[in-house]
């Protein structure tokens, strides 16, 4: 049996308990006693026991062997037999039992230890992984051996050549100013955020890629649209980590932490605090990414510094060689190694030989030393200037794409966190930050996150007809298609406007052999189908999910079909909007319309795309669709007018009772006296008359539209 000697003796009583003084008298002769523990309360049927702790193991061993099984008088008439045994100094599972019995202490301590472990071990690894992703440490295509193998195998067999991005934007005259503004932002220290806005399909991404390819700097892309499309918080965290290179990610631990929090509420009445909210997780990832960006910048600076030092050493060696060559040419060079052969004193003159020794010797040496010092100073100035340029180029670039709030899938906390993070990057001059958005309204979050400095705004608009035609000619010429545009074809291209996505679709159709006129018609017809579905819904149930009413979007469509733009405040001041700006903002987010501003306030409403003007016209000219939407719009207007009539009737009834109760003079039947109630009644009656005439006119119009529908028009 594994029962080893111990200084602690467990004394079990077979009978009544033995008093402490009696135990001391029995065990003291065998050695010095440190402590005696009296019996505690035990379950029924369990023998009671006490413990005697000796100072020395030898004393405990003698006492156990001698006193085991002796009878001790516990009282005057009772005898107790004692049985002795060793007790382990450390009880089994003592630490575990203590921790389980003190959860209010152990759980917070466990959380602290896990947080410390994450901060000290995993965060440096994650920062290193972010740096590795941006520096292409894990991209095998960037390795020299892979590029050499590809150049000598696949490339020789006729591999595909990378597309020339810069040539795709050379035909856009409207892009030159935007390109110059973006380059000017990248050539200065980051002090604010560059906000590039323009409608979807205006070529923001293409232009940005062309500029960044010329810069040749490290770029980190974050796609907000991909993040907002995630169904759960864990998927959002995983996607952001994948885009930034943040690894490892323990999303499973956060799910397990929710279960632990539920259990801790039942145990200690409060959450353990192991889980983190979505905001905390996103902030943690972005903070680690910021450290990785700082590491990327430091790595580039170190590489640049090594190159500068190597270049400086090379130039110093070349300068020394030039001076040595000049001395040899002039005959003033002296090899000191000859002194070892010729000796010292008078004999050292043999080391000089036939070298020229005149008054110009010292001047030549001084001149050469001065030239060397000037060259060193010039080299230092050039090195410092180059160091400043290299330090600016060492900064990475963070591109946040699709920064916009879409209908139904907007995560406001995500956009706010990204805005605050971008502001912290530029304030700390960690990186240049470029934000791409389809709407100028989305700059409000960025301006709020960076209130001390204005945003560096870069706007992109649709190209004019001449630029659009030049763009098409260049792209078709690159594809080997030369077309002399006729007047009709030029007019067809002008109908699409200058939206880059529409022009790319037209070019694709023409390259497939389709005529320009037919291609434009196909694009417009496709736009009609998409607009009918996205703006009006496929059925009544689908229309209920839209953030605007059918009569509202039809009012906008019918108005923009007649004119290129309409006044913003004129629209919201009357039916069917009547102050409802939310519906117009949702239409702008859905890219059905574009709201232009003047002096910081909304000014006018235009179609979301230049092509939409012809799409709106097609919808209005469809007699069946136009009749259905007009009937729906008139029904809503009739209902509003009838409510007005009903309100006027109720008010006139009340005014009649008031006028009947007013005191009347004896001559009131002869002279009519103006009162407030009479004037109000006259105004309400006129208002009710206008509403009634409007109802009658709309009813007649609806009857005519219904007859047209019955005739199958």
- What is the 3D shape? flat
In round numbers, the mean pLDDT is 83
Give the DSSP E fraction (strand runs of 2 or more residues). 5-15%
Strands of the biggest beta sheet: in what spatial order? 2-3-1-5-4
Q: pLDDT under 50 segments (min length 5)?
A: 162-171, 350-361
Main pleated sheet: 5 strands, antiparallel
The total of beta strands comes to 13
**First-last Cα distance:** 105 Å
Counting helices, strands and paired strands, the structural category is alpha/beta
Give the helix proportion (percent range): 55-70%
Rg value: 45 Å
* Count of separate DSSP helical elements: 26
Give the SSE map.
Blueprint: E1 8-14, H1 20-27, E2 33-37, E3 49-54, H2 57-67, E4 71-73, E5 79-86, H3 94-101, H4 103-134, H5 144-152, H6 174-186, E6 194-197, H7 204-215, E7 219-223, H8 224-228, H9 233-244, H10 251-268, H11 278-330, H12 338-342, H13 360-393, E8 397-401, H14 412-427, E9 432-437, H15 443-449, E10 456-459, H16 465-478, H17 487-496, H18 500-511, H19 516-536, H20 540-544, H21 550-560, E11 566-567, H22 568-572, H23 581-589, E12 593-598, E13 601-607, H24 612-621, H25 623-661, H26 676-710
Parallel strand pairs: 6-9, 6-10, 7-8, 8-9
Antiparallel strand pairs: 1-3, 1-5, 2-3, 4-5, 11-13, 12-13
Helix pairs in contact: 4-11, 9-11, 11-13, 11-14, 14-15, 16-18, 17-19, 18-19, 19-24, 21-25, 25-26
Structural overview:
This protein has 713 residues and is α/β, with parallel strands linked by helices. The chain has helices at 20-27, 57-67, 94-101, 103-134, 144-152, 174-186, 204-215, 224-228, 233-244, 251-268, 278-330, 338-342, 360-393, 412-427, 443-449, 465-478, 487-496, 500-511, 516-536, 540-544, 550-560, 568-572, 581-589, 612-621, 623-661, 676-710; strands spanning 8-14, 33-37, 49-54, 71-73, 79-86, 194-197, 219-223, 397-401, 432-437, 456-459, 566-567, 593-598, 601-607. The protein has 26 helices and 13 strands. β8 (397-401), α14 (412-427) and β9 form a beta-alpha-beta unit. The protein is flat and about 125 Å long. The protein starts with 7 loop residues before the first strand and ends with a helix. 23% of the residues are buried. Residues 175-658 form the Mitochondrial escape protein 2 C-terminal domain.
């Amino acid at each position: 049996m594994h029962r080893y000697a111990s200084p602690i003796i467990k004394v079990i009583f077979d009978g009544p308990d033995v008093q402490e003084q009696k135990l001391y008298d029995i065990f003291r002769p065998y050695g010095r006693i440190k402590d005696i523990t009296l019996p505690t309360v035990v379950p029924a049927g369990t023998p009671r026991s006490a413990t005697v702790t000796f100072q020395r193991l030898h004393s405990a061993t003698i006492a156990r062997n001698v006193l085991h099984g002796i009878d001790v008088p516990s009282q005057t008439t009772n005898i107790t037999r004692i049985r002795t045994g060793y007790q382990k100094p450390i009880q089994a599972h003592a630490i575990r039992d203590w921790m389980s019995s003190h959860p209010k202490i152990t759980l917070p301590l466990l959380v602290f230890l896990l947080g410390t472990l994450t901060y000290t071990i995993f965060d440096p690894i994650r920062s290193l992984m972010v740096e590795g992703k941006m520096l292409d440490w894990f991209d095998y295509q960037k390795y020299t051996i892979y590029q050499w193998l590809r150049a000598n195998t696949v490339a020789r067999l006729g591999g595909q050549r990378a597309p020339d991005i810069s040539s795709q934007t050379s035909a856009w005259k409207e892009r030159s100013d935007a390109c110059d503004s973006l380059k000017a932002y990248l050539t200065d220290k980051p002090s604010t955020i560059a906000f590039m806005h323009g409608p979807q399909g205006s070529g923001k991404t293409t232009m940005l890629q062309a500029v960044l390819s010329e810069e040749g700097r490290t770029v980190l892309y974050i796609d907000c649209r991909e993040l907002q499309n995630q169904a759960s918080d864990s998927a959002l965290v995983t996607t952001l980590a994948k885009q930034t290179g943040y690894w490892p990610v323990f999303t499973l631990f956060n799910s397990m932490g929710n279960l632990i929090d539920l259990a801790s509420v039942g145990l200690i009445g409060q959450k353990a605090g192991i889980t983190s909210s979505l905001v905390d997780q996103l902030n943690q990832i972005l903070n680690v990414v910021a450290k990785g960006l700082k590491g990327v910048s430091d790595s580039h600076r170190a590489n640049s510094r090594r190159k500068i030092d190597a270049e400086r050493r090379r130039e110093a060696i070349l300068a020394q060689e030039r001076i040595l060559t000049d001395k040899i040419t002039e005959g003033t060079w002296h090899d000191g190694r000859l002194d070892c052969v010729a000796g010292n004193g008078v004999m050292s003159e043999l080391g000089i030989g036939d070298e020229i020794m005149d008054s110009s010797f010292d001047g030549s040496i001084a001149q050469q030393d001065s030239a060397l010092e000037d060259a060193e100073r010039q080299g230092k100035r050039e090195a410092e200037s180059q160091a400043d340029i290299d330090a600016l180029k060492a900064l990475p670039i963070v591109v946040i794409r699709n920064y916009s709030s879409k209908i139904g899938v907007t995560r406001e906390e995500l956009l706010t966190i990204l805005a605050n993070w971008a502001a912290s990057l530029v304030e700390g001059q960690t990186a240049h930050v470029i934000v791409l958005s389809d709407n100028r309204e989305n700059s409000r979050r960025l301006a709020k996150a960076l209130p001390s400095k204005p945003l560096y705004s870069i706007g992109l608009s649709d190209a004019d007809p001449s630029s659009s035609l030049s763009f098409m000619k260049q792209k078709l010429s690159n594809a080997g298609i030369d077309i002399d545009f006729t007047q009709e074809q030029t007019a067809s291209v002008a109908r699409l406007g200058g939206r880059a996505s529409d022009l790319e679709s037209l070019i694709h159709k023409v390259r497939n052999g389709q005529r320009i006129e037919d291609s434009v018609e196909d694009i417009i017809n496709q736009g009609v189908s998409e607009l009918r579905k996205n703006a009006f819904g496929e059925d009544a149930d689908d229309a209920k999910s839209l953030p605007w009413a059918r009569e509202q979007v039809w009012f906008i469509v019918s108005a923009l079909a007649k004119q290129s733009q309409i006044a913003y405040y004129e629209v919201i001041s009357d039916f069917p909007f009547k102050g409802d700006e939310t519906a117009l903002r949702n239409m702008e987010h859905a890219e059905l319309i574009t709201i232009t501003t003047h002096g910081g306030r909304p000014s006018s409403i235009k179609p979301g795309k230049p092509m939409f003007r012809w799409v709106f016209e097609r919808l209005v000219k469809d007699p069946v669709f136009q009749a259905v939407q007009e009937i729906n719009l008139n029904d809503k207007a009739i209902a509003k007018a009838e409510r007005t009539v009903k309100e006027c009737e109720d008010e006139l009834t009340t005014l009649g009772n008031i006028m009947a109760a007013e005191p009347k003079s004896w001559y009131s039947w002869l002279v009519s006296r103006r009162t407030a109630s009479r004037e109000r009644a006259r105004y309400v009656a006129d208002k009710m008359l206008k509403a009634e005439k409007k109802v009658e006119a709309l009813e007649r119009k609806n009857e005519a539209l219904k007859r047209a529908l019955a005739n199958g028009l």
